[in-house]
Amino acid sequence: MNYWLVKSDPETYGWKEFFADKKTEWTGVRNYAARNHMRSMKKNDLVLFYHSGEISAVVGIAKVTKESFQDPTTDIEAWIAVELNVVKIIKREVSLKEIKGIKELKDMLLLKISRLSVMPVLDKQYEKIIAMSNA
Asked: Which of 3.10.590.10, 3.90.950.10, 3.50.50.60, 3.30.2280.10 is the CATH number of 3-133?
């Protein structure tokens, strides 16, 4: 199993909407690196759902339920989407400020390439964030 982090602005599509929908197609990604990460996502991989912007925190856990397919928001074949389902809300949001302060998380792509909307997360990083969230 692999672990991922996806970022969304809560005012665009936040955890509240995702939780109500129970599943979503992760569309609209127009960054080649993020797209390549999405191509590597496999069914049942776990995903940290991260609110960017003012909140800047991990707020929930999702899983990949459908691997890469043509993004329905464009006719350009280069762009793909994946389907995500809600796994659970976490008990405590893990803020970017907290993540920056943890030695074990210093190599997260979230800190190195902050604008990337889809990125892999190492097993040990995922486990640390889950522990911090009391999930």
From this structure: 3.10.590.10
pTM (2 d.p.)? 0.96
- Spell out the domain ranges in the chain: 3-133
Of the chain, the percentage scoring pLDDT greater than 70 comes to 99
CA distances from 68 to 23, 36, 53, 56, 102 (A): 15, 10, 27, 26, 32
Does residue 135 register a pLDDT over 80?
no
The length of the chain, given as a count of residues: 135
Query: Do 120 and 40 form a contact (C-beta atoms < 8 A)?
Result: yes
Q: What mean pLDDT comes out for the span 14-35?
A: 97
The closest alpha carbon to 48, from 33, 60, 64, 66, belongs to: 60
